[in-house]
Amino acid sequence: MRLESEDDKLERILVYVNIEKALFGIGNVDYEKVVETLYRQYNCCLEDCYEHPEHLKRVLNYIYGDAHVLTESLKTGLREFTRDSSIARFLEIMDK
Fold first, then answer.
1. CA 24 remoteness from chain centre
2. pTM above 0.85, yes or no
3. Residue ranges covered by each domain of the chain
4. Which residues contact 78 (CB under 8 A, 6 or more apart)?
């Protein structure tokens, strides 16, 4: 088992906060729907999406059909942190 470094913890929090911000930007009901679907389909929460962005991507596509607006919001919020390979990987998966 790999111990999470302080940088990993900060990146995880940064991604989580930006996901919440993007979802709350479109409404509380949408936020709840995404959280419930993530848990129901993948037994995970928003914090887990840092390591499993594919889960978030699938849920957003399932609910919205196209998650482009949310993906753009995430890219905007995380743009300055893309030098961090984990955040760049997260955005790459979300953008596919």
1. 13
2. yes
3. 6-95
4. 14, 15, 18, 87, 90, 91
Q: What is the 3-state secondary structure (H, E, C) of 11-49?
A: HHHHHHHHHHHHHHHHCHHHHHHHHHHHHHHHCCCHHHH
pLDDT tens for 61-87 read 999 887 788 889 999 999 888 887 889
The gap from C-alpha 54 to its chain's centroid, in whole angstroms, comes to 9
DSSP percent split of the chain into helix, strand, coil, nearest 5: 80, 0, 20
For the domain 6-95, what is the CATH code?
Answer: 1.10.1200
